[in-house]
């Protein structure tokens, strides 16, 4: 996966304000725990709806399930009965996407409501898996601001965590090592605190933190 330079490569469309880093980090960590959602200024962007993503829908999302044709859904591998995934077409587009945007916007899945492509510039990585180019282009445009030097240090810790997770992938083990760039970025946010005070924690420390975060989700 490509690494994002500290000052970030910009697409032809130029930078977008990602907001204050530490405020955003607190919000996105709460959203990951299921306590609210972040407010992403998507505008007319549909990159995440066009990037070959499997959209998870949980059994409690009855309103969503009532608005998505059953034929588009299949059981989510590794999850309990009732959890389903919605796939994408041959162009990587969600089947609910139309030329004017999401056709079920008011009823869209929780996955879509909580998705925030700022996790990539936060972790200093860009997704390079097949079909993810639209998200990578958009994610590279975000630029954070910092209210204090401790906020800058917090962002440095997230990037250090991402670099550690990438370089120690094999040592972390297949049970806990992030399998995708998205998982790596989210894991870096979740474990960054132990990188604020330690230059490089041990693999054991990081495994403990990853296990703890996973069980709290
Ligand atoms: S359901 Fe709507 S918001 Fe979610 S990926 Fe599909 S088009 Fe995008």
Largest beta-sheet characterization: 3 strands, antiparallel
Radius of gyration equals 17 Å
Strands of the widest sheet, in order across it, are: 2-4-3
Q: Give the % helix.
A: 40-55%
Mean pLDDT: 90
Q: What is the ordering of alpha helices and beta strands?
A: EHEHEEEEHHHEHHHHH
Spatial separation of the terminal alpha carbons: 26 Å
Q: List unreliable stretches of 5+ residues.
A: 5-11
Q: How many distinct domains? A: 2
Category from helices, strands and their pairing: alpha+beta
Indicate the overall shape.
globular
Count, helices: 10
Relative strand content: 5-15%
Counting DSSP E segments of at least 2 residues, the number of strands comes to 7
Q: Ligands bound here?
A: iron/sulfur cluster
Question: Could you walk me through the main structural features you see in this protein, from its secondary elements to its overall organization?
Answer:
This protein has 217 residues and is an alpha+beta fold. The protein folds into two domains: 16-40 and 122-216, no CATH class; 47-114, no CATH class. The protein has ten helices and seven strands. Helix 6 crosses helix 8. The protein is globular, with a radius of gyration of 17 Å. Mean pLDDT is 90; it is low at 5-11.
């Amino acid at each position: 996966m490509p690494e994002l330079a500290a000052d970030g490569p910009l697409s032809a469309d130029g930078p977008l304000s990602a907001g204050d880093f530490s405020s955003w980090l607190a919000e996105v960590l709460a959203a990951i725990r299921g306590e609210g959602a972040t407010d992403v200024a998507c505008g007319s962007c549909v990159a995440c709806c066009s990037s070959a993503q499997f959209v998870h829908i949980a059994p409690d999302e009855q309103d969503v399930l009532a608005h998505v044709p059953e034929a588009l859904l299949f059981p989510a591998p590794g999850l309990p009965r009732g959890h389903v995934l919605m796939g994408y077409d041959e162009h990587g587009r969600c089947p609910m996407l139309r030329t004017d945007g999401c056709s079920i916007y008011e009823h869209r899945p929780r996955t879509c409501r909580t998705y925030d492509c700022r996790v990539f510039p936060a972790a200093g990585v860009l997704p390079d898996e097949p079909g993810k180019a639209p998200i990578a282009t958009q994610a590279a445009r975000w630029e954070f601001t910092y209210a204090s030097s401790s906020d800058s240090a917090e962002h440095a810790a997230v990037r250090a965590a991402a670099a550690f997770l990438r370089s120690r992938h094999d040592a972390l083990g297949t049970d806990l090592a992030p399998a995708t760039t998205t998982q790596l970025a989210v894991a870096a946010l979740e474990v960054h605190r132990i990188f604020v005070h330690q230059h490089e924690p041990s693999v054991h420390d990081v495994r403990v933190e990853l296990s703890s975060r996973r069980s709290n989700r």
